[in-house]
Amino acid sequence: MTEHFPDIEIYIMKAEPVAVRQWLQDALQQPLQTLKENAGSHHWQAQIDGSSMDIFLNENAEKNFASLWFKQNLTPWATDLDCGRAAHAALSSEVRCSDSGWQESAQSDEPGWIKLIRDEEKPFDWV
């Protein structure tokens, strides 16, 4: 069984906030409350089984990529990759995410990132 990550973060190429929000509302089967929005930055909240989940979309996180971060993972996805797969399928956008949980002293010869593009998953180094 896959470990349920405590938080999730994925990166979406040229993310459209309206489309991301609609996808999340459909996937979570919950409306999102807007807590804060300014140029390129969105803070939403969902109520899941009596608990609050903060969701942050930073449209300008890395070049053409937006960061989508679920501070508390109350999502239907166990891992970043599970969420990335769902986002890629729903939004038809390139998605990048970690291929495993974050560890402070993680040293590996593996790239550590997965690129989801044109219905394919490819490991790569994102420096």
Can you give keywords for this protein?
about 130 residues; alpha+beta; Double Stranded RNA Binding Domain; 2 helices
Question: What does this entry look like structurally?
Answer:
By secondary structure, the chain is of the alpha+beta class. The chain has one domain (8-102, 110-124): 2-Layer Sandwich (Double Stranded RNA Binding Domain). It has two helices and eight strands. The protein has an eight-stranded antiparallel beta sheet, with helices on one face. Strand 7 (113-117) and strand 8 form a beta hairpin. The N and C termini lie far apart (30 Å).
CATH fold field value: Double Stranded RNA Binding Domain
CATH architecture: 2-Layer Sandwich
CATH class: Alpha Beta
Biggest sheet overview = 8 strands, antiparallel
Distance between the termini: 30 Å
Average predicted local confidence, pLDDT: 91
Unreliable runs, pLDDT <50, ≥5 residues? Answer: none
**Any idea what the radius of gyration is?**
14 Å
Strand content: 35-45%
Strand order in the largest sheet: 2-3-4-5-1-6-7-8
Q: Helicity range of the residues?
A: 10-25%
Strand segment count: 8
